[in-house]
# Entry
Amino acid sequence: MTVKQHPEIIIQARRGETVESVHRAVAALAACDGEIVERWGDPDMVTFWRSSAKPFQAQAWLADGTVEHFGWGPEQLAIMSASHDGLHFQAGLVRDMLADLGLSEADLRCDHKLKARHNCSGNHTGFLAASVHHGWDIPTYPRPDHPAQEASLQMFAACVGLDPRQIPTGVDSCGVVCYATPVTVAAATFALMPDLLPEISAAMRAHPTLVEGPGWIDTLVMETIPGATSKCGAEGLSCVSLPDGRGLAVKVVDGADRASDTATVTALAAVLGAEAIAEPLRAKGRPPITNDAGDVVGELLGVAPA
# Structure
């Protein structure tokens, strides 16, 4: 199979008519069988998945019976896979789940202040649920040597098709273990996501506002592209399981958060066609730059070379 190779995706920060700054992104597109068919820049670069791994971490608790044990369903699967906005309905669901475990927000180790409103609280509640179910130690659940972290890594490795010993690991901002692979592996894995994570993919699509929040990129992708499953991560990574079975992974090379949405929408338009990008998502990909008074003085603009 011939792989199409393109230059990097360019994200321009324009102030007036002048390009003030430039971010670059790499991307990979995988066919439904996981084979890479299109590349922008060098997507063999290794990067941490950060929150893009959350659905695959949640799969561990579906596979080991934890989810069934507590009688949880699609909403709980969605929030365990989420980087949510800390809204009342999102934090409320997390609190209800903690109550099911006989625990409280005090048991969350994602931060010291936000607790249930922290964007990773649902993900952490999954680790806590497994710990309660299996009788593992509660306070130390984020430690790399904790059984919950080891089980999560094993599941992630199985999904990406690598030996866990081959996967570089680190500590995420919320304190749990995070994993690194080439961007191409992320694209291939998201192409296979409907087969690997059928229940979780369906739950995320059914509850897109739990996965991130109104107006956020993952939610908009799932609301405006029927059949897509989207999960972004920190440092400019975005991964999408497309409705036709292909997988797309986009990484802003310098990790700039401001460039991530633009890079994602630009890549989606290149892959699906500009006509497939609805206005709310199109606007998300071309955000304004404002001055201190709130006046629009520029914009971010993405270009995907053909």
